[in-house]
Design a protein that fits this description.
mainly alpha, elongated, N-utilizing Substance Protein B Homolog, Chain A
């Protein structure tokens, strides 16, 4: 499934009261439905299992971000020791600034029992990535953020935490090297990158000076509502697939229907599912979300096309009594 946009990280401008966004979940369902369309021999249970794994992989990616930090510090501490052993070491070599390797928050990440066990369970291992870690250290060391941090004379826990958060928001978020490295491991992490950074950021926020070593990783979901959302969106889009296809065909001449981009068709079916099966999601929210997804994953004109079809579909659903919103779903309807 082709992605048609360049990454620009904006996740930290969004609310930090959520772990993964609804858009992230819609993207995962879109990918699962696309895969199901391409592999019609695969049954629903297998597709649903792969979807669950794809969603959970966001947390795996977030731990990659977290676990990389102690590895970078370890690399720097080795280099400082090597510099002292030079034939003609300088004063800076003999008396280096150790503020970075003494960062208390990064030390806590390295000692956190939950993170260490998660790395074991998911085979997150940096032991053979020395050159990559060296390059990541250089990206940090060459930044104004790093020099400003080292040149602040005092060191305290809050400053250390703020520095780590800025590494996530200013270095990791924009690092082409890190993007490439992680996408080589999992191509779908292109889409998960921002949400995983947000998850890592939230976990750092939770750390406290005297107890971070035993603080558990924050789960992706605060409650079951989001889990139900993505599971049901996948299931019901497949369940009512024929009905939604018929509705699309009604809006188009048959020859036009066959020329619609496959992604556009899937997005419109997902939108129809949300409109009719999720009573608490406002109509405008659904339409706007799928217009944005069309811009990201389909053609340049897909957003306008989908907007026109969905506006007409909403009118039909209202007339047919299929648009029954309650609670917050009534907003702006």
């Amino acid at each position: 499934m082709k992605k048609t946009y360049t990454r620009k990280n904006t996740i930290f401008a969004t609310s930090l009261f959520i772990m993964v966004t609804r858009r992230f979940l819609r993207i995962k369902v879109l990918q699962a439905l696309y895969a199901a369309e391409k592999n019609k021999k695969e049954d629903f249970a297998a597709g649903a299992k792969k979807l669950d794994q794809a969603v959970q992989n966001c947390q795996v990616l977030s731990v990659y971000f977290l676990s990389l930090l102690p590895e970078i510090v370890h690399y720097r501490s080795i280099r400082l020791a090597e510099l002292k052993e030079k034939i003609n070491p300088t004063q800076d070599d003999l008396n280096p600034n150790t503020k970075f390797i003494d960062n208390k928050v990064i030390k806590q990440i390295g000692e956190n029992t939950d993170i260490k066990q998660f790395c074991v369970n998911h085979k997150i291992d940096w032991s053979d990535r020395y050159d990559f870690i060296a390059q990541m250290y250089n990206e940090i060391a060459n930044s104004d953020l790093y020099s400003k941090y080292l040149n602040t004379p005092e060191q305290n826990y809050n400053e250390d935490k703020d520095f780590v958060r800025k590494i996530l928001t200013e270095i990791f978020s924009e690092s082409e090297l890190l993007h490439w490295f992680l996408e080589e491991k999992n191509v779908h992490w292109f889409d998960d990158y921002n949400d995983a950074l947000l998850a890592a950021y939230k976990n750092i926020d939770k750390f406290k000076e005297n107890q971070a070593n035993n603080i558990a990783l924050i789960p992706l979901f605060k409650n079951d509502e989001e889990i139900i959302f993505y599971k049901e969106l996948f299931r019901k889009t497949l369940l009512y697939n024929a009905e939604y296809q018929k509705k699309i065909d009604e809006k188009l001449q048959r020859w036009e229907s066959e020329r619609i981009m496959e992604i556009d068709t899937i997005l419109m079916k997902m939108a129809m599912c949300e409109l009719t099966q999720f009573q608490t999601i406002p109509v405008k929210v659904t339409i706007n979300e799928y217009i944005e997804l069309a811009k990201l994953y389909s053609s340049r004109k897909s957003g306008v096309f989908i907007n026109g079809i969905l506006d007409s579909v909403v009118t039909d659903f209202k007339n047919e009594g299929k648009l029954n919103k309650i609670g917050r779903g009534l907003i702006n309807n």
